[in-house]
Amino acid sequence: MGHAIGPRVVIVTPAPRGSTSGNRVTALRWAALLRQLGVQVQVRERWQGQACDVLVAVHAVKSAPSVLRVAAERPAARRVVLLAGTDVYPQFTAEPDALAALQLADAVIGLQPLAAAALPAALRGKVRTIVQSAVPVPATRRATFRVCVLAHLREVKAPLLPLLAFARVPDDRPAELVLAGRALTAEVETRLRESIAHEPRARWLGPLPRQQARRLLGESHVCIVASSAEGGANVVTEAIAAGTPVLASSIPGNLGLLGADWPATFPPGDAEALGRLLVRCRDDEPFRRDLERRLHGLLPMVDPARERGAWRRLLTDLGVGLPPVAH
């Protein structure tokens, strides 16, 4: 007995094969999830005429040419555009091709519920929020207070801010700062190495495979997400799944996931405020336990079954038939 053939989806992402950038990670995660729904998926850097029933474009600005080309050459194909952080923050910039791609989109995906507010009013009705899911990792925290940072190091991620803040943590009790991620410019790497040379409690591991990065999250008492702009960082949802409190810059991309009332936020770029939060998390165990309790309440939001269901509803609403039995 033959199996039903699922719809054909091409996911385009500006990040090349082998990249560990957020855009590539998102594309590969979605590809795996869609295959569970019985969908045939290809991941490419751009659309080059492949047969497809649905084009999913990761990053409105950088993937706009693929959206415009599909609209012109395969008008029957459905078009879905993901809003990356730099598409909408610090503000939406209406680059002509990106604006045209969003206007031609059948659906626009925001990774957290505040993303739609950054768009022009005429486009907000197309936005679906699909929070990236994560699988829980065991907590293996030791006695020494550990702070982790998981991010590729570029200016928008405020790579030196955690070090500046950590320097404000007195060394009267054990504490360590562990950074993981690739430095995307030589200048950032040089500045980072210089800063670490002055902070014996800090170390930089460079890029880590995903499983090791998740293990680091489970070993840490808190995780810093210091970015000045995020679309809805995967590290936040991974931290929620790990039960590791997030010390987050108070930007929409973080607050949309953690909640407007999240108690562990700081103004973007404010090393002094982050330093105070670090000291409080180290020394005030009831505060840290309260953050962990709040994270537990957010676990349903990052359940893989919920994300799968959101994609199933989206494809169904777009008129894309799925096989009756998906594994």
Description of the structure:
With 327 residues, the protein is α/β, with parallel strands linked by helices. The chain has 2 domains: 141 residues, 3-Layer(aba) Sandwich (Rossmann fold), CATH 3.40.50; 157 residues, Rossmann fold. The chain has 13 helices and 12 strands. The strands form 2 sheets. The chain has a 6-stranded parallel sheet with strand order 2-1-3-4-5-6, sandwiched between helices. Strand 8, helix 7 and strand 9 form a beta-alpha-beta unit. Helix 2 crosses helix 4. The model has no long low-confidence stretch (mean pLDDT 92).
Overall mean pLDDT stands at 92
Percent helix, as a range, is: 25-40%
The total tally of domains equals 2
End-to-end C-alpha gap: 17 Å
Question: Any idea what the CATH architecture of the largest domain is?
Answer: 3-Layer(aba) Sandwich
Number of helices: 13
CATH topology of the largest domain: Rossmann fold
* Coarse shape: elongated
Total number of beta strands: 12
Order of helices and strands: EHEEHEHHEHEEHEHEHEHEHEHHH
Biggest pleated-sheet summary: 6 strands, parallel
Sheet/helix structural class: alpha/beta
Spatial extent as radius of gyration: 20 Å
Share in β-strands: 15-25%
Strand order within the widest sheet? 2-1-3-4-5-6
Q: Going by CATH, what is the homologous superfamily of the largest domain?
A: Glycogen Phosphorylase B
Poorly predicted regions are none
- What's the CATH class of the largest domain, please? Alpha Beta
